[in-house]
């Protein structure tokens, strides 16, 4: 390439002005879209690649892409869209890990194609996060083509995915189908680059060694390249140095470095203290369009983007401050559904909070800051209170059983009284000592210890302290072998800890789920309630669903549905609705002959229970046994019930009822058509038989009318 050439502002200028060796970074991303088969595996034609390893690799690539961020460059929207869409594939890969084996060759081929496309996407996203912003614009043709190639490959890979073969649930299927549609739309309507930015950069690049660069051009480059702070400029400088150390021609990098220096001089002249201009003077582009906040991210009361979403007992989500004011005003109903609230507990919706943060990042919106939680930030305890706690800890650490029992009981009571006490006890180091006493054989001490941990876990910071102290195995030990009161409070403690998403994995791996299932089956009324709430929360994590099914949870839930006096119908149905989205859960529910029970709930249950029963049926009436289950449900008289639910149920209940009615109508139409075909075939066979009988009768009459032959003459 002739580096001394003076390119104009035409498209040809790109190839002449762009650094030849630096373009290798884009080429690397483009080549990664069609990488060679990784070492240690064989091609689809050539042999055996372990399906488990392939699935793990695809899941790892999605996870690796999820942590790549900070796309502050001219292609921010394209990078954010690509990253966001790929992150939405994570739930599918979690289900594929738990899905059926072996997989058909077509599904394995689709996963290989997805793996290769994701490898290319990862390299491109890394370039967008860490690469030179100036280089990205100079190489716009290759960058945009790489975007298009990777988008096309991802769309093709997702098009080859068979949800049934991989055991994907309906909810996840809908999400992946949406992602596939977005990739398909992006493939058909490729993005266009900013011509003004490109022309400005080419002009400045070719004048970088001169002093006569138009200041207006430098200002536009600074704003559009998002090189507006000293930090931005230092990061770009580092990227250029890395390009130079990677073998790029010195003169090429020097030209880009000279251009960067001019931008840096301009920024320091305009903003000597390094405050980004965009914080006080947003660019016109920022003001032209404001992203529309999805309805699911808005509080139903204030209609604002939620900062601290919480779930009430009806399952609806609200902004914490709004629902707290509603409850403080004396209301006892859910604002959205008008259902009576069984209790006024508020559970943080960590999943939605994470989705809101991802949406904000993808759309360039500053994530909402959670308001200070006065109730969750207790004042520091006084010196006298602290000394009292220390005294109790000394007794707790003694070898005297009576002292241990008394101190544990006192800590239990103190932790129950106030958030200040919970914070003070946790900060004093009580939790590791309490955890060490969980295996004690003294019944009263064990009850006090596990209940103290339950009370302490209400304070958010103590949750982390309890987990890091290794408490979960001890709590599970008490859950299995303790008194009924100790078992109840162990289950409640596991529920409290599982409110933090990462703790669901830890608890699920500890052997807690079979013990919770056992408590649900043979515990006291309170124990069953505590076990059910813990199991519900743990089974939100896909990896725990199979464990719960294998522990025998499904038959117990169905038994609870038939025992209306148990008061556990709500909890049992809610857990069934979660398990039915898992292949093992669906199979277990199907094998337990649950259709009549579920139809009975839709006939006589509450609105929420009808909704969950319909959700379970949607999963059952899909896949291999769809026709069998639809026929059984029809015999139970479900059609009229679904029509009523579609008219007067909850929003989710209406959607599930409509889905089932559509499947039922298709089934009845196929059944009617099959009956019609059978009747037509029977009629045709009847016609053929009638015609044969007529022919036989005609032949007989003909034979009787013939003259006698020689055989009929008398002998002589």
TrEMBL record:
Q: Which PROSITE patterns does the record cross-reference, listed alphabetically? A: ARM_REPEAT, U_BOX
- Please state the pathway this protein functions in, per its UniProt record: Protein modification; protein ubiquitination
Q: Where is this region: Disordered?
A: 1-50
Q: Which residues form the U-box domain?
A: 292-366
Top EC class, one word: transferase
EC number from the UniProt entry? 2.3.2.27
Q: Name one GO molecular function term.
A: ubiquitin protein ligase activity
Q: Where are the ARM repeats?
A: 429-471, 552-594
Record's InterPro entries?
Answer: Adaptor_Cbl_N_dom_sf (IPR036537), ARM-like (IPR011989), ARM-type_fold (IPR016024), ARM_PUB (IPR058678), Armadillo (IPR000225), MLKL-like_MCAfunc (IPR059179), PUB12-19-like_N (IPR057623), RING-Ubox_PUB (IPR045210)
Q: Name one GO biological process term.
A: protein ubiquitination
Against Pfam families, the record matches this protein to: ARM_PUB, PUB10_N, U-box
Q: Which UniProt keywords apply?
A: Repeat, Transferase, Ubl conjugation pathway
Low complexity: bias regions: 10-44
Question: What does the record give as the reaction this protein catalyses?
Answer: S-ubiquitinyl-[E2 ubiquitin-conjugating enzyme]-L-cysteine + [acceptor protein]-L-lysine = [E2 ubiquitin-conjugating enzyme]-L-cysteine + N(6)-ubiquitinyl-[acceptor protein]-L-lysine
User: Could you identify this protein by its name?
Assistant: RING-type E3 ubiquitin transferase
């Amino acid at each position: 390439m002739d580096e001394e050439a003076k390119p104009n502002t035409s498209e040809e200028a790109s190839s002449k002005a762009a650094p030849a060796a630096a373009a290798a970074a884009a080429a690397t991303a483009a080549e990664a879209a069609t990488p060679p088969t990784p070492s240690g595996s064989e091609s689809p034609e050539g042999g055996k690649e372990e399906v488990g390893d392939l699935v793990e690799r695809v899941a790892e690539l999605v996870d690796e892409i999820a942590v790549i961020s900070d796309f502050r460059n001219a292609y921010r929207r394209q990078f954010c869209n690509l990253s966001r869409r790929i992150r939405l594939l994570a739930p599918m890969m979690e289900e594929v890990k738990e899905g059926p084996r072996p997989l058909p060759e077509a599904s394995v081929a689709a996963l290989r194609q997805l793996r290769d496309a994701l490898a290319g996407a990862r390299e491109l996203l890394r370039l967008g996060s860490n690469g030179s912003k100036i280089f990205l614009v100079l190489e716009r043709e290759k960058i945009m083509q790489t975007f298009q190639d990777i988008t096309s490959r991802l769309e093709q890979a997702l098009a080859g995915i068979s949800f049934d073969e991989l055991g994907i649930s309906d909810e996840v299927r809908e999400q992946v189908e949406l992602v596939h549609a977005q990739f398909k739309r992006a493939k058909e309507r490729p993005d266009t680059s900013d011509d003004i930015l490109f022309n400005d950069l080419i002009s400045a690049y070719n004048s970088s060694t001169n002093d006569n660069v138009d200041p207006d051009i430098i200002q536009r480059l600074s704003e559009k390249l998002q090189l507006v702070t000293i930090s931005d400029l230092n990061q770009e400088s580092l990227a250029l140095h890395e390009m130079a150390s990677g073998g790029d021609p010195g003169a090429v990098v020097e030209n880009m470095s000279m251009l960067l220096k001019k931008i840096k001089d301009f920024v320091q002249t305009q903003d000597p203290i390094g405050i980004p201009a965009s914080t006080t003077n947003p660019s016109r582009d920022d003001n032209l369009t404001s992203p529309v906040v999805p309805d699911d991210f808005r509080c139903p009361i204030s209609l604002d983007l939620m900062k601290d979403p919480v779930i009430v007992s009806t399952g609806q989500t609200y902004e914490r401050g709004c629902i707290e004011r509603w409850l403080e005003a004396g209301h006892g109903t859910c604002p959205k559904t008008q259902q009576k609230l069984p209790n006024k507990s508020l559970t943080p919706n960590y999943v939605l909070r994470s989705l809101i943060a991802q949406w904000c990042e993808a759309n360039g919106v500053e994530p909402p800051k959670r308001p200070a939680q006065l109730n969750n930030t207790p004042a520091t305890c006084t010196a006298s209170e602290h000394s009292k706690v220390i005294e109790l800890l000394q007794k707790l650490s003694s070898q005297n059983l009576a002292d241990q029992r008394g101190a544990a009981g006192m800590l239990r009571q103190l932790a129950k009284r106030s958030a200040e006490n919970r914070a003070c006890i946790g900060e004093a180091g009580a939790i590791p000592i309490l955890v060490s006493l969980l295996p004690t054989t003294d019944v009263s001490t064990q009850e006090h210890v596990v209940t103290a941990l339950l009370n302490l876990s209400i304070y958010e910071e103590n949750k982390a302290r309890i987990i890091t102290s290794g408490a979960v195995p001890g709590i599970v030990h008490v859950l299995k072998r303790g008194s009924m009161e100790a078992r109840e409070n162990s289950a409640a403690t596991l529920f409290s800890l599982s409110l933090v998403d990462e703790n669901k994995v830890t608890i699920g791996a500890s052997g807690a789920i079979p013990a919770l299932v056992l408590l649900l089956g043979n515990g006291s009324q309170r124990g069953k309630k505590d076990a059910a709430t813990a199991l519900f929360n743990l089974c939100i994590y896909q990896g725990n669903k199979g464990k719960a099914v294998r522990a025998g949870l499904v038959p117990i839930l169905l038994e609870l549905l038939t025992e209306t006096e148990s008061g556990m119908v709500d909890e049992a149905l809610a857990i069934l609705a979660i398990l039915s989205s898992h292949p093992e859960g669906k199979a277990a529910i199907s094998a337990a002959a649950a259709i009549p029970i579920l139809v009975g709930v839709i006939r006589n249950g509450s609105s929420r229970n009808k909704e969950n029963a319909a959700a379970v049926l949607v999963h059952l009436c899909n896949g291999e046994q769809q026709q069998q289950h639809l026929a059984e449900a029809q015999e139970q008289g479900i059609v009229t019930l679904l029509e009523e639910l579609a008219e007067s149920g909850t929003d989710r209940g209406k959607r599930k009822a409509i889905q089932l009615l559509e499947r039922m109508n298709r089934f009845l139409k196929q059944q009617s058509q099959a009956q019609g075909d059978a009747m037509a075939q029977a009629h045709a066979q009847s016609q053929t038989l009638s015609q044969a009988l007529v022919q036989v009768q005609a032949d007989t009459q003909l034979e009787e009318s013939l003259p006698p032959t020689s055989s009929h003459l008398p002998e002589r």
